């Protein structure tokens, strides 16, 4: 049911972990199935220099977390904020319809982390 | 591949395949016909009926063949309900039945019947006192499963049956998960109706049986040619029935040996997991269980991910996590034990079969250890699990206040 890309990102997730002196942290929970995701950002000159995630959730949730960190790394804060859940799902060659809310969660977590960063400026 | 999902289905044994084959190619006749090839088919069908009856201590003419456990449950429950609707409209069941029972009960609720769903508590077993309390003079049917498919707990069927008999209430049990795993005898269990499926006991899919005690009257709910005592219809699935018969014959012969073997494997599996993995807990009663079945949960991780990682190691297992269900809801069986969503999330069911080996069990323990560690290293709640789990539990509680 998952594409090869989803399985690859699930089995070899990129950017797993935490950033100790993060500039922004976004933590969101999933109302649909009850999982949780946290994204940590390091930002320099308005550019995402480092990004890490931790997720308590299904294969799709882990894969979308991994994918969104890969997409966001090196982008400006504005570009990163604009990443949509569809973009993440497309980059994974699609998700099963029932799992689309997992990519939603990844986009929400990134936006929450950016908002946290902005609120501290 | 290491297959540890026998509660879902099982491989068909070679002996069963061999027994079935001639009924596709040689004895393919319609058993209702009188010429030779039809008579041969009929012979195979009736021989299979004998074998099914023998396994459960019934008479052959008390067995009807069906398309599986679901059809058996439907015929039994609706059949009794409709036949007795003038006597009463109350049905008692448990909250952890198979959907074939639960959905049939819900359907009847929409049509004027009242249903009591008995709780099962942390141990996953109904209590006789609750049952006694639930019985009214309108109760016409009790239907409680023999063994639960997700947690393997054994329900007190003989005791329930005794009470039902005293009160003159018909009693049905779905024995799909107990047949071939523990002794099943319709007289000792005091049941009037009992559902069986072939594919859980190394037989083919799409065939099962219903035991109907002599003198038990059912309304027909499946209309047609009336081939199976007018309760089930359609040209008989002779190869399927023959397969079921063979599977029952083998199950009976090997029952004792398998019970011992599977209990040993399962106990080692549970011990290996719980001593090697922190915060791994067994769901449901640990003793009153069929051999070979265990259900655990691992704090801080999600089960679909665990199943996928195990799949990557060629292990087939199941989970009751919301994320892996079609409706994104945690298993209602685990919830009935009082587990909240966040604990159901990390559940894993392992159901062993006689072809599993001790080496496989060791490999599975090692693989689970690695996979859980891996998922926990990625988990956003594992490190601060105490505070975060609590948060999640609180949030979930609002969503599922029915539990509280
Ligand atoms: S995290 Fe629950 S479905 Fe993805």
TrEMBL record, chain A:
Pfam families in the cross-refs: NifU_N
Gene3D superfamilies per UniProt: 3.90.1010.10
A biological-process GO annotation: iron-sulfur cluster assembly
CDD domains named in the record: IscU_like (cd06664)
GO molecular function, one term: iron-sulfur cluster binding
NCBIfam families: NifU_clost (TIGR03419)
Protein name per UniProt: Iron-sulfur cluster assembly scaffold protein IscU
Organism the protein comes from: Methanobrevibacter filiformis
UniProtKB/TrEMBL annotation, chain B:
Ranges of residues in domain Aminotransferase class V: 2-364
Cellular localization per UniProt: Cytoplasm
UniProt KW keywords: 2Fe-2S, Cytoplasm, Iron, Iron-sulfur, Metal-binding, Pyridoxal phosphate, Transferase
Pfam families linked: Aminotran_5
A cellular component annotation (GO) from this entry: L-cysteine desulfurase complex
Swiss-Prot/TrEMBL GO biological process terms: [2Fe-2S] cluster assembly; amino acid metabolic process
GO molecular function term, any single one: 2 iron, 2 sulfur cluster binding
Co-factor requirement: pyridoxal 5'-phosphate
Residues annotated for pyridoxal 5'-phosphate binding in this entry: 69-70, 177, 197-199, 235
Amino-acid positions noted as binding [2Fe-2S] cluster in the UniProt annotation, renumbered to this chain: 323
Main location: cytoplasm
NCBIfam families named in the record: FeS_nifS, PRK02948.1
Subunit structure: Homodimer. Forms a heterotetramer with IscU, interacts with other sulfur acceptors.
More info: In Archaea the pyridoxal phosphate cofactor is not covalently bound to Lys but ligated by other amino acids.
Similarity remark: Belongs to the class-V pyridoxal-phosphate-dependent aminotransferase family. NifS/IscS subfamily.
Purpose of the protein: Master enzyme that delivers sulfur to a number of partners involved in Fe-S cluster assembly, tRNA modification or cofactor biosynthesis. Catalyzes the removal of elemental sulfur atoms from cysteine to produce alanine. Functions as a sulfur delivery protein for Fe-S cluster synthesis onto IscU, an Fe-S scaffold assembly protein, as well as other S acceptor proteins.
HAMAP family: Cys_desulf_IscS (MF_00331)
Name of the protein in its database record: Cysteine desulfurase IscS
Naturally occurring in which organism (per UniProt): Methanobrevibacter filiformis
Lineage, opening ranks: Archaea, Methanobacteriati, Methanobacteriota, Methanomada group, Methanobacteria
Gene name for this UniProt entry: iscS
């Amino acid at each position: 049911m998952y594409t090869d890309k989803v399985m690859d990102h699930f089995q070899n997730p990129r950017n797993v972990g935490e950033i100790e002196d993060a500039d922004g942290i976004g933590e969101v929970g999933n109302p649909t199935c009850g999982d949780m995701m946290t994204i940590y950002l390091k930002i320099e000159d308005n550019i995402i220099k480092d990004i890490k995630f931790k997720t308590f959730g299904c294969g799709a949730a882990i894969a979308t977390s991994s994918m969104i960190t890969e997409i966001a790394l090196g982008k400006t804060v504005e570009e990163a904020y604009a990443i949509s859940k569809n973009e993440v799902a497309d980059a994974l060659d699609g998700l099963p319809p029932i799992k689309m809310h997992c990519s939603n969660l990844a986009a929400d977590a990134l936006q929450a982390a950016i908002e946290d960063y902005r609120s501290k400026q | 591949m290491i297959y540890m999902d026998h509660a879902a289905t099982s491989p068909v044994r070679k002996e069963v395949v061999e027994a079935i084959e001639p009924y596709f190619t040689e004895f393919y006749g319609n058993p209702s016909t009188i010429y030779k090839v039809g008579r041969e088919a009929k012979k195979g069908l009736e021989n299979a009926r004998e074998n099914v009856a023998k396994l459960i201590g019934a008479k052959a003419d008390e067995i009807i063949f069906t398309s599986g456990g679901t059809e058996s449950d439907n015929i039994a429950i609706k059949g009794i309900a409709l036949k007795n609707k003038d006597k009463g409209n109350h049905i008692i069941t448990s909250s952890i039945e198979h959907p074939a029972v639960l959905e049939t009960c819900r359907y009847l609720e929409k049509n004027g019947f009242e249903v009591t769903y008995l709780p099962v508590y942390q141990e996953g077993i109904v209590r006789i006192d609750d049952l006694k309390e639930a019985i009214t003079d309108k109760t016409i049917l009790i239907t409680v499963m023999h063994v639960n498919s997700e947690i393997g707990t054994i329900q007190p069927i003989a005791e329930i049956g005794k009470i039902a008999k005293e009160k003159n209430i018909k009693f049905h049990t779905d024995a799909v998960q107990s047949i071939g795993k523990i002794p099943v005898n319709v007289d000792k269990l005091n049941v009037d109706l009992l559902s069986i499926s072939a594919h859980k006991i190394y037989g083919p899919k799409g065939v099962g049986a219903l035991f109907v005690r002599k003198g038990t009257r059912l309304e027909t709910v499946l209309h047609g040619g009336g081939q199976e005592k007018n309760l089930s219809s359609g040209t008989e699935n002779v190869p399927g029935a023959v397969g079921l018969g063979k599977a029952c014959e083998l199950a009976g012969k090997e029952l004792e040996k398998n019970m011992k073997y599977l209990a040993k494997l399962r106990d080692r599996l549970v011990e290996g997991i719980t001593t090697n993995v922190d915060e791994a807990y067994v769901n449901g009663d640990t003793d009153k269980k069929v051999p070979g079945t265990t259900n655990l949960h691992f704090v801080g991780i999600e089960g679909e991910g665990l199943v996928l990682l195990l799949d990557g190691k060629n292990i087939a297992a199941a989970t009751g996590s919301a994320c892996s269900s079609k409706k994104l809801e945690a298993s209602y069986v685990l919830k009935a034990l009082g587990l909240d969503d966040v604990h159901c999330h990390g559940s894993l069911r392992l159901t062993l079969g006689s072809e599993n080996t001790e080496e496989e069990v060791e490999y599975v323990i090692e693989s689970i250890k690695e996979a859980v560690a891996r998922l926990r290293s990625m988990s956003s709640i594992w490190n601060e699990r105490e505070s975060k789990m609590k948060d999640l539990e609180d949030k979930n509680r609002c969503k599922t206040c029915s539990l509280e």
